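User: Could you check the structure of this?
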Amino acid sequence: MSRKKQVYEKITALYCRISLDDGGDNESMSISNQKIMLRDFAEKHGMFQYEYYVDDGYTGRNFVEVR
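Assistant: Sure, the predicted structure tokens are below.
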């Protein structure tokens, strides 16, 4: 009998968030800067398959369904 080996590729989730409640205009923590920092961290640790998840301008008081 031949069994096919199922290969699961791991994808790293990179989460970026700026809330309007947090003063969302802070350039040091802008979404673009967060993406760069997270990408660099992931690649430094051998995580080359990643996807960005971004909550830009939403407050944590909103439910995920609203975002």
